[in-house]
Amino acid sequence: MTISSIDIVFFMLGIAILLFVAKLFAEIAKKLGIVAVFGEILAGIVLGPTVLGFFFPFINDVLFPSEGARKMLLDIIANISIVLFLLVAGIEADLNSVKRQGKVVFTVAISSLVVPFVVIFFLATIMPEVFGGPGDLKNTIFALFIATALSISALPVIAKILMDLNYYRSDLGAVIIAAAILIDIIGWLLFAFTLGLIGKNESSYIPLYYVIALTLLFAFFMLTFFRKLMHKTLPYIQAHFTWPDSMITFALSIAFISAAFTQWLGIHALFGAFMAGLAIGDTYHFKEKARTTIEQFVNAFFSPLFFGSIGLYINFITNFNTILFLTYFLIGTILKLIGSFIGSKMGKLSNKEGIAVGFAMNARGAMEIIIALVALRYNVINEEIFVALVTFAIVSSLLSAPIMKKILSIKMPTKFYDFLDSNAFIYTLENIDKFTLIEKISEIIAKHNNLDSEIVKSAVIAREEVMPTGLEHGVAIPHARIEGLKKPIIAVAICPRGINFQAPDGNPSFFVFLILTSSKDNLKQLEIIADISKTFRKTDYISEKNFPVNYTEFLALIKSGSK
Amino acid sequence: MTISSIDIVFFMLGIAILLFVAKLFAEIAKKLGIVAVFGEILAGIVLGPTVLGFFFPFINDVLFPSEGARKMLLDIIANISIVLFLLVAGIEADLNSVKRQGKVVFTVAISSLVVPFVVIFFLATIMPEVFGGPGDLKNTIFALFIATALSISALPVIAKILMDLNYYRSDLGAVIIAAAILIDIIGWLLFAFTLGLIGKNESSYIPLYYVIALTLLFAFFMLTFFRKLMHKTLPYIQAHFTWPDSMITFALSIAFISAAFTQWLGIHALFGAFMAGLAIGDTYHFKEKARTTIEQFVNAFFSPLFFGSIGLYINFITNFNTILFLTYFLIGTILKLIGSFIGSKMGKLSNKEGIAVGFAMNARGAMEIIIALVALRYNVINEEIFVALVTFAIVSSLLSAPIMKKILSIKMPTKFYDFLDSNAFIYTLENIDKFTLIEKISEIIAKHNNLDSEIVKSAVIAREEVMPTGLEHGVAIPHARIEGLKKPIIAVAICPRGINFQAPDGNPSFFVFLILTSSKDNLKQLEIIADISKTFRKTDYISEKNFPVNYTEFLALIKSGSK
Predict the structure, then answer these.
(1) Among A76, A238, A555, whose Cβ lies nearest the Cβ of B559?
(2) Is residue A436 part of a domain?
(3) Is residue B494 classed as helix, strand or coil in its secondary structure?
């Protein structure tokens, strides 16, 4: 098989389309409050045999054929992507946090993993047909695998959910994250053993007890000696070589060597990459800049390509088995909740917290999908089981956040940009005073929201006359409460020449936010003002060379938080 | 051909080793004042048939075989790498700077490119044997190619040289950069035409005039409409999608689509990627964070893999032809100098500046290597010509900096860390006064530099008593001049508890630098103090959670300039 120029053309076109659609869907998913990885997988389903291949088999065959050179090219990229994705997952897991949180982490992690694992392994051994297992000699491997797949938790998704809920830094959040890290490590180890067994059954050149011994030795080595070695080596690299390039290159080399080793052992490259990430990411010498560069590039390139490619070769409709999915979903969820609850009580958490921990741990996310994919490649499971596992991973991840929010009565922080009216935007270079500006903004905001501009104007000016609303950092926040308003409305005026709102630091105001809230709701107004003030304190927007000239540019500036 | 697990093992091991060695050699090259790309290429030569393959053919065959699955895997990575490398090259080229500098840029660029191009094309047509050309019907393509290869300049290398010389922001530096951008664009266009001609000769499905028309149209479209479209689209993406991930994904999708298009046209993917980079990078909306993430990851991963892979398949010793190299070197350099000089004089630069411009433009760097590689793949040149061109590219790049430094009498800025004595480092948690500390440091610095500690101590204390040497930002710089000292010596003391050096901001000093300079050299002392003060003004090192406890950690902190 050789790669022709036209293969490269369609390979690059395929990558471009997959990247674009995967990221687009991921963004839409996020806006709907769904985990991003779901959008990436859906992109592959849409571009694969399930949708595009069904309606336009010709296009699908050209872009994402299921065999030949182009398929192989995409496979390689997926292989590299998974190594880098697991490297990042390892880097993000902070081993020290496990130690810091103490005993409760161990009881939660072990019970949350062991209860479902043991029960499912037992069930899948005595009645394999319920889980779709083969029931033959290979059934032990299948039972081991399905028990692992249904017991694991997905650290990245859990971390993301806690961040979204603004709960990451709380005490309970720290316990959940630390336990998820521990589950991750043990889960991968379990999965590595299962793969070792498969290798033994297939074409292995290394005896099984050797694989198990080497895996344990490798994990131990990476988490002790090698971790300490990194702690000493990284500052040396940083001191004597180009920063941060060399540090990144070094981390990537380590990841690939480690991945090559575990692939050679027969327990898949991803285990090595994850261990390398744990060892490297654990020292504070692996600093922010190198860390974010790797994470951002992997999130922007390798992760959408990897998760996007999953749906490219499998028909998710014809392979969807409702009974199987419901079996996995119910058994997996119930056992996870029970296991987590027992662990939480042993760690002296409250009942409410115990249930919340259970739903957090129930998020299977990317981890279950990855191990299911590997199992599919190794022929341990068929496509039906794969699709059921992927669906379970997504559904369980989707349920986590809303249920946790409800149980823990979490209130989301107010963000002022959620109330911006995109039509009420003014950019003015005129040399006017603050009252004229307030009049202008009032008219626009009133027009687009069916309000009486006279009422708005006079209320805002009355408030302004009581006390000027200029804040520090070039911001002013004229505001008023309007009767009958359903939700807050904010209009923005950008005045590059500066308007005097008598700010306490004596500076003119360049960013003017006119804030209208309901006369009944006092709290929202304070929260909005606090958020605006915090936003402009954190970043120096005044020294921007280019003031935003339209609403989109303004939002872009605020969202990026930097030049 | 299928990819086995063992292929993946050795592919990943190969990548890891190539990455590591390439970056290591690049860093060593930098320390020797040589362009980094030379180190990366040398790594490939060492790991390829020239060295490793010669002494240990078995290892070379396993890691980097010249055919089969593993070879193909590396080829794909190299293909993707080149697309991303050219994307970055395009992003880094600031089109607006060409406009800003005015006429002189055009005269320099055009004369610097056209003079060597026309002369060499003429020479290679009438006497192909001098250039190693085939002399048959294909000779026109060869002449076009060799004329392009020997006339091009390498923007990234030139930019790097000017930065190293601290000359990037000067007037002449801006002219040189802008001219190099213009040469780059025209050079790629010329090369694209040559490739179009080859395609015509080989297996093209598109007629030549069509290729030329489409290439021009594509370049025009990308630099006008598409550039404007990006200017409007990027803020929208930034405003409504996750930042900076989405921006990076979007830029990469554009690059691959554009690359696929030019590959389809038969003028190679790299041209499309470069044009995409130009169009995206040109708006100020493609902001710093997205830009640096792409650049850093490409520099850390794709660039060493690409340049490293060049030497893996070619024997650079058996294919080295001294006569051919000297021909290219002399003809290329002389014509480039003449062309640049004429253009500089037309743009009213001085004689000295004209010669400096010539040596700057003579740096061929990565660009010539890339087009030579493509030409080798397309069988336009043989391995001897390829090796001669690569050698010329490296030698010409090496010559640029020292000659420019000489001609323009450039003085390099003093960096205090160049004079640090790695043995004279103290970390102390003791609660001592400044005189005791000075005594301690004096003893250490004296011991390691064969000085009399009494002389050092009394000189520093005498100076300290005249006026305290505490600076702002937690730094103190006790210093003295010592007779007979050959070059400045600096010792560092880290005192996390803080020592009172009577700093003007009232803060204690945590970083104490004891500076000894020759009694004859007053200037150096001032420069060192200025550099220390600037370093600590720029970054807030005092709020570091972890003070450095040894010399390596200290250097790491200073070099990284951030957490």
Answers:
(1) A238
(2) yes
(3) strand
Look at residue A406 and give its three-state secondary structure. Answer: helix
Greatest Cα pair distance in chain B = 85
- Does A54 contact chain B (CB < 8 Å)? no
The pLDDT value recorded for residue A219 is: 92
**In this structure, are A67 and A142 located in the same domain?**
no
Using CA atoms, how far apart are residues A319 and A317, in angstroms rounded to an integer? 5
pLDDT at A325: 96
- Tell me: do B184 and B317 sit in the same domain: yes
Considering the domain architecture, whether residues B58 and B173 belong to the same structural domain is answered as yes
Residue numbers in A near B492 (CB within 8 A) = none
pLDDT of residue B562: 42
Q: Helix (H, G, I), strand (E, B), or coil: what is residue A232?
A: helix
Is the preceding omega at residue B488 within 30 degrees of 0, hence cis?
no
Beta bridge partners of B420: B490
State how far the Cα of B127 lies from the Cα of B146, in Å rounded to an integer: 13
Minimum Cα–Cα distance from B75: chain A residue: A3
- pLDDT value, residue B208: 76
Task: Report B:135-154 residues touching A (Cβ under 8 A).
Answer: none
Residue B225 lies in a domain: no
C-alpha to C-alpha distance for B437 and A144, rounded to whole angstroms: 64
Residue B233 lies in a domain: no
Question: What are the Cα distances from residue B216, in Å, to B96, B193, B211, B221, B222?
Answer: 20, 10, 9, 8, 10
- Interchain CB distance below 8 Å, A288 and B562: yes
- Compute the distance between CA of residue A312 and CA of residue B52 in angstroms, rounded to an integer: 40
CA–CA separation, B159 and B93 (whole Å): 10
Q: Residue B478 belongs to a domain with what CATH number?
A: 3.40.930.10
For residues A365 and A427, membership in a common domain is answered with no
- In the numeric block, the tokens 């290597």 are attached to B369
Q: Are B301 and A248 in contact (CB under 8 A)?
A: yes
- pLDDT in the model for residue A562: 42
Same domain for B347 and B389? Answer: yes
Phi, psi of B350 (to 5 degrees): -75, 165
How close does chain B come to A452, measured CA to CA in Å? 30
Alpha-carbon distance of A478 to A286, in angstroms, equals 45
What is the biggest distance separating any 2 CA atoms in chain A, rounded to whole angstroms?
85
Distance CA A175, CA A177 (A): 6
Alpha-carbon span A459 to A481, nearest angstrom: 7
Domain that includes residue B482, residue range? 416-560
The helix, strand and coil proportions of chain B, stated in percent and rounded to the nearest 5, come to 70, 5, 25
* Residues of chain A scoring pLDDT < 50: 201, 562-563
CA distance B357 to B351: 10
Contacts with A137 (C-beta within 8 Å, 6 or more apart), sequence order: none
The reply to whether residue A5 touches residue B245, judged by beta carbons under 8 angstroms, is no
Q: Are residues B32 and B166 in the same domain?
A: yes
User: Where residue B47 sits, what CATH number does that domain have?
Assistant: 1.20.1530.20
Amino acid making up residue B180: A
Q: Is residue B171 part of a domain?
A: yes
Domain termination residue (choose one: B407, B433, B450): B407
Helix, strand, coil content of chain A in percent (nearest 5): 70, 5, 25
- Both B389 and B505 in one domain: the answer is no
β-pair type (B479-482, B475-476):
unpaired
Q: Among B376, B407, B438, where does a domain finish?
A: B407
Count of the separate structural domains present in chain A: 3
Cis status of the peptide bond prior to B244, with omega within 30 of 0: yes
Does ipTM exceed 0.90?
Answer: no
Distance of CA A209 to the CA centre of its chain: 37
Query: Which stretches of chain B score pLDDT less than 70?
Result: 1, 199-205, 542-546, 561-563
| Same domain? B371 vs B424 | no
Q: Which residues of B508-523 are buried (b: 16+ CB within 10 A; e: fewer)?
A: bbbbbbbbbbbeeeee
- Which tokens sit at A41? 């997988």
